[in-house]
Amino acid sequence: MNEKKLRRLSEAAAEIITWCAENRRPLPWRLDPDPYHVWLSEIMLQQTRVETVIPYYSRFLEAFPTVRSLADAPEERVLKLWEGLGYYGRARRLKAAAEKLAAEYGGQLPRRADELRRLPGVGGYTAGAIASIAYGEPEPAVDGNVLRVLARLFAFGEDVLHPSVRRRAEAMLRAVYPSGPDAALLTEGLMELGEVVCTPGGGPDCSRCPVEKLCLARVEGRQGSLPVRSGAKARRVEEITVLILACGEKRAIRRRADAGLLAGMWELPNLPGRLDETALRARLAEAGIAPLSVEPCGETGHVFTHVEWRMTGYHVTLAGPAGDFVFETPETIRASYAVPSAFRFYLKKL
């Protein structure tokens, strides 16, 4: 990086640190930046809004106040507390990392980013966030928000989704990163700036930005067209038919496979395709299930990162337990089984 860019970035970093100290939101993990708390918050915040995370964060810490308590917890309990937050692989990797920390690090998170990256589910961004916020290490944490701020600050038109751009951004920041409390303020300030001021699309609030005078995109009037991002692949659409199988007061659930989408979670029985009643009865007969009644119970959908489910539901009354399912009361299912939010529409109809 040439001297002029380095000077611009150094000035911007100083302005962001001052601004963050005065304007950052009093989020719970910021009020108590214990390494475990910072780690938990960063994992929960991946692809999830702050407002959604706060109640989950509080409940999770109440249940698992230490790394060791998380390491010792049954996975089913961890997933149940994660229910509704989505991206359940995060919860599994969080627990796996806690087990590694308990076994190899005395239940404490290491302070160096390179050691943190050895933990399951901890990439460069999360490692940088923990190291700088919890330990004051001069280590940047570069995510989409930070890349957007830098792309506008320097008005560069390269694709920010390309790994080489992220690596270059990390190197740029590392050249000016402070140590101690200012490291935390710079990391949190860049995050805050990207989340609430230098927002995506054409609507950044430049009048509130601490680096407005240093921003080349603002000078060139290009805030709305930067950063450049390559187009995302279209989501795959899957049609599925969801069944509420009722046997007296109990309803059927089953556990998904240990690999793939929603691995190991509990779900309502479902079949591929959009089945009408005739086709559904035929499929049930093939499985040796003779329903007493079949009634439609609504349609809904759920969007994952790479796939979209379009769901058709039926309430199926059985004379007795059938199939390879677990039958429980609706109250027990809601209280004790981790069922993904994709089935929320039908859970309300149990």
Explained architecture:
The chain has 350 residues and is an alpha+beta fold. The chain is built from 16 helices and seven strands. It has two domains: 3-225, Hypothetical protein, domain 2 (Endonuclease III, domain 1, Orthogonal Bundle); 236-347, Nucleoside Triphosphate Pyrophosphohydrolase (Alpha-Beta Complex). It has helices at 3-23, 28-31, 35-45, 50-63, 67-72, 75-82, 89-104, 113-116, 124-135, 144-154, 163-174, 181-197, 216-220, 277-286, 330-336, 344-347; strands at residues 236-247, 250-255, 266-267, 270-272, 293-303, 307-317, 326-328. Strands 1, 2, 3, 4, 5, 6 and 7 form a seven-stranded mixed β-sheet that branches. A hairpin with a 3-residue loop joins strand 5 (293-303) and strand 6 (307-317). The longest helix has 21 residues, at 3-23. The mean pLDDT is 93.
